[in-house]
Amino acid sequence: MSWSVEDTSELVKQEIVHSVSLCPPGPCALFIVLSVDASFTETRRRSVEEHLDLLSGTVWRHTIVLFTCGDWLGDRTIEQHIEAEGEALRWLVGKCGNRYHVLNNEKRGDVTQVTELLEKVEEMVARNSGCHFEIDRMIIEKVEEKKRSVEERAKQRMMKVENQRKTLRALINEQTQDLSELRIVLLGGRWTGKSSAGNTILGREEFVTKRRTAQCVKRQSEVAGRQVTVVDTPGWWKDWSVDGTPEADKQEIVHSVSLCPPGPCALFIVLRADASFTETERRSLEKHLELLSGTVWRHTIVLFTRGDWLGDRTIEQHIEAEGEALRWLVGKCGNRYHVLNNQKRGDVTQVTELLEKVEEMVAGNSGCHFEINRMIIEKLEVKRRSVEERAKQRMMKVENQRKTLRALFKVSGESPASSEAGYSGLGGRMVSEWMETFQAVSSSSGCGTQTSASAAPS
Ligand SMILES: Nc1nc2c(ncn2[C@@H]2O[C@H](COP(=O)(O)OP(=O)(O)OP(=O)(O)O)[C@@H](O)[C@H]2O)c(=O)[nH]1
Ligand SMILES: [Mg+2]
């Protein structure tokens, strides 16, 4: 893992600190577990250092680097691996007082690897004059207090959501609206799991998850007796301001809502449940959503992915632990949120519950879906058509330009690919001549170009 400590969720950070209080009076040793089948970069080194610092600077006297996947080494020794790997790993081993050990977890029967490891622990404890690691009581107390407060607030939030949902379900029973068709748009940062969530909702592989979604994709399926339409969109870099997002991606985000006429019943803001949510991300998300106008928030639900990462913790605990930025977002979405585990496609209840939440939101909005200002869409469509037209013209221009150049290469009987030297040495003059002739030809034929002869290698 190469995340900085800022990217790690508050819940995980609390668990790291909490871990040392689970073996009172304190651990004799802390193993920093690394796999030998992956490189150890400077970014990973910094990540380990920052996370260990959560336990205070004295922790290093009690640490051992524990390498796993020992079988991966083959005939090589762990020392060869350490020396070959680079400065970052050597720094870590040095920081741990040159204490390390390698395990082959595929070979559980080999007890000597374990007894040797325990001997190394004993040696370290002896070197520490018999002392174990003791974390500052204040750090533990602060974390434990935070955990208690998070649990209390999480319970309250859960109850509030339950009451909110009950009221909305009563509204559904009163209203006689037809919700046999649900239209959903997925929005969010890059790599948050939008496409995976789309697949989970539709119950089959409709969206590609192996690579970035570059354009809006619309798919439909029948889910729990309803016709469900899902529109997947390109994500933005979570730390970037909206100005940093390419114009084409911004256009796709706006375009998405026009793909499910008359408008989406719900827009899901997709976030990872295993990661932090900073103020910078919050600002970025707010600005990206505003591309769709300020009224969008009445139709949004925060959809957390990677529910599998939560383990026994609830999504409410994550929301309460994470901080002000996430609580602001959940509040802005009218306390509507849901968590999915996209690794567990078979669990259909997580999808039916999500669709129920959509129905409740629609009922709360008096049956209305999200409708974007027609002017925004019309302006966008004019822009898109103009971009497409100009892109076609540019492509044709480049093709003609290249054809002319290749014809010139043929006339001279040389091709730039025929000789490396032809480009840098002798051929430099030749290329300049080609460029001059080409410019003369292109300007006379009206096929203008920005390329200047001086830009060619000389
Ligand atoms: N463990 C786990 N992994 C998940 C979950 N959801 C998504 N992933 C993984 O997260 C990665 C990104 O998922 P995508 O669905 O492609 O994310 P995306 O938001 O569509 O990405 P872009 O289109 O690039 O913005 C993939 O490797 C998924 O397998 C989940 O619930 N649990
Ligand atoms: Mg995607």
TrEMBL record:
<feature type="coiled-coil region">
    <location>
        <begin position="140"/>
        <end position="178"/>
    </location>
</feature>
<keyword id="KW-0175">Coiled coil</keyword>
<feature type="domain" description="AIG1-type G">
    <location>
        <begin position="179"/>
        <end position="379"/>
    </location>
</feature>
<comment type="similarity">
    <text>Belongs to the TRAFAC class TrmE-Era-EngA-EngB-Septin-like GTPase superfamily. AIG1/Toc34/Toc159-like paraseptin GTPase family. IAN subfamily.</text>
</comment>
<dbReference type="InterPro" id="IPR027417">
    <property type="entry name" value="P-loop_NTPase"/>
</dbReference>
<dbReference type="InterPro" id="IPR045058">
    <property type="entry name" value="GIMA/IAN/Toc"/>
</dbReference>
<keyword id="KW-0342">GTP-binding</keyword>
<dbReference type="InterPro" id="IPR006703">
    <property type="entry name" value="G_AIG1"/>
</dbReference>
<dbReference type="Pfam" id="PF04548">
    <property type="entry name" value="AIG1"/>
</dbReference>
<dbReference type="GO" id="GO:0005525">
    <property type="term" value="F:GTP binding"/>
</dbReference>
<protein>
    <submittedName>
        <fullName>GTPase IMAP family member 4-like</fullName>
    </submittedName>
</protein>
<keyword id="KW-0547">Nucleotide-binding</keyword>
